[in-house]
Amino acid sequence: MQKTLLTLSLTWLLTACQPVQQAATPTGEQATTTPVAERFLLTSKTPYQPQQDWHSYSAAPAGFTAVGLQHVARHGSRFLSGKGDDILMLELLALAAAEQGLTVRGEQLAELVQRLHQAHQPDKYGEISALGVQEQQQMAQRLLARLPGVFEQAIAQQLRIEVLHSGRERADQSGDAFVAGLTAELPALVPLLDAARADEATLYFYKAEGSEDFERYRESDPRLMRVMKQLEADPARQDAALAMLSRLFSPAFLSRLQQGEIELTLPDDDDAIRNPLDAANVLFSLYSIASNLTLEGPFDFADILLDEHLLPLAELDDADSFYGRGPAFAGDDITYRLAGRLVADMLDKAEQPNGYVASIRFTHAQVLMPLAAFLGIAGASEPLPENVLYSYQNSDWRSGRVAPMAANVQWEVYRNAEGLTLIRMLHHEQETAFAAHCQPVAGSRYFYSSSELRRCLLP
After folding, report:
1. Strand, coil or helix: what is 238?
2. What are the Cα distances from residue 445, in Å, to 8, 330, 431?
3. How far from chain centre, in Å, is Cα 406?
4. What is the maximal distance between C-alpha atoms in the chain?
């Protein structure tokens, strides 16, 4: 076991979890309260925090007034997406207990995982949690607070609000929560809301018609297969998994797992435990989802799992997202090309609202990650050459920053008396520039004409 991994210092851990280069902090940006290490160790399960106080946003150019909104959000914090990791871990713990193979800490883990499993009963898998409801409702309330004139005008002119989702339950539930946040603050919006409907072509595009090339990439691209195999085989990662499990299981039981004598699988599910890295990854999944269930009960892994063991697993999870849904390999847009469908829909509706003041959409990390890459958002869109393996030392990309729970891209739409349309983009409610080759209007940093965005994003 590599000694250097087992003696990782907290200083190194914090450095590795932070981006390689810090982006400039926008004027008035508010610091988050979650420690950097914890925030990024949770990867894409990171609960939502707005990244800027809207009171500090820059003023719109002279003569322009806010008239609408194009909104895309990931579903809120959730339960486990399906039966799998909790059941596999309970089976592994039960097997170890039957062989007197649990340490005292392992027995504590067994009790914790059992409570986590019970929190999902009778069938809450895939649903948003109470925290997820809260995230969406509070985001809606902040929207009304910062753009009151937009919705007052909508009421006065009877303009409508479109509600779209991916077709999956947690996205639909997130839309319900967001709408509840709007109407609790402004009941007059109720008759203006369309019934929610699914739009898979724009909000589940990685599974919709036309996604065949992406599916082939995910299933068989030799570059992807090679890098993920390298990442999984990294001795430091293997050692971290063993170090994590050695605190929970006896040497004899852990040896059996190392030798391939234990295989746990589930019917109709790809998840399995066949080796120490599998078991560690399952534990990492349970640790990260517990952060989404803070209002369902205390599920504290702090005394059971160490950050130094979780860090290499978080890096592996981020790598899978980076190559599978993020900017991936330089010179290839296969992972985010389909996001152009969503961008085109947002631009069309911003320019030609046709009686609608807003379109609010609810989807998944698998859409927010490629969308951020397509839009050229700094820190979310930089690929790596094929010969450079993703790591926390050579890439700024972190799923906890790019697509946490309730991640969102909001386009505020502004118009002047001449009918010119400007768009300001917010990423997690922070003023954000489009791709470097898109030019904001003169004298502005964050306002772009819709025609310029059409030119630079949809050539």
Report:
1. helix
2. 41, 27, 9
3. 7
4. 78
Per-residue pLDDT of the chain (459 residues; tens, 9 = 90+): 333 333 333 333 334 344 333 333 333 333 334 444 445 899 999 999 999 999 999 999 999 999 999 999 999 999 999 999 999 999 999 999 999 999 999 999 999 999 999 999 999 999 999 999 999 999 999 999 999 999 999 999 999 999 999 999 999 999 999 999 999 999 999 999 999 999 999 999 999 999 999 999 999 999 999 999 999 999 999 999 999 999 999 999 999 999 999 999 998 778 899 999 999 999 999 999 999 999 999 999 999 999 999 999 999 999 999 999 999 999 999 999 999 999 999 999 999 999 999 999 999 999 999 999 999 999 999 999 999 999 999 999 999 999 999 999 999 999 999 999 999 999 999 999 999 999 999 999 999 999 999 999 998
For the record, the structure tokens of 453 come out as 């965005």
Q: In whole angstroms, what is the distance from residue 6 CA to residue 384 CA?
A: 29
Q: Are 395 and 384 spatial neighbours (Cβ–Cβ below 8 Å)? A: yes
User: How many whole angstroms separate alpha carbon 116 and alpha carbon 310?
Assistant: 19
Q: 């991640």: which residue's tokens?
A: 407
CA–CA distance, 302 with 309 (Å, rounded to integer) = 12
Over its C-alpha atoms, the chain yields an Rg (Å, rounded) of: 23
Token look-up 């883990």 returns 109
The total number of residues shown for the chain amounts to: 459
The CA distance from 85 to 327, in Å, is: 28
Cα end-to-end span (Å), the chain? 52
> What does the block give as tokens for 204?
């589940």
Cα–Cα distance, 298 to 115 (Å, whole number): 9
The whole-angstrom separation of Cα 184 and Cα 136 is 13
Asked if 370 and 175 count as a contact pair (C-beta separation under 8 A), the reply is no
Q: What is the pTM of this model?
A: 0.91
CA–CA gap between residue 309 and residue 311 (Å, rounded) = 6
For residue 136, give the H/E element and its range: helix 130-146
- DSSP per-residue letters across 37-77: HHHHHTGGGPPP--SS-GGGPPPPPTT-EEEEEEEEEE--S
Number of separate helices (H) and strands (E) present in the chain: 19, 10
Cβ atoms within 10 A of the Cβ of 235, count?
Answer: 10
CA distance linking residue 90 with residue 426, whole number of Å: 42
Q: Angle 276-290/104-119 helices, nearest 10 degrees?
A: 50
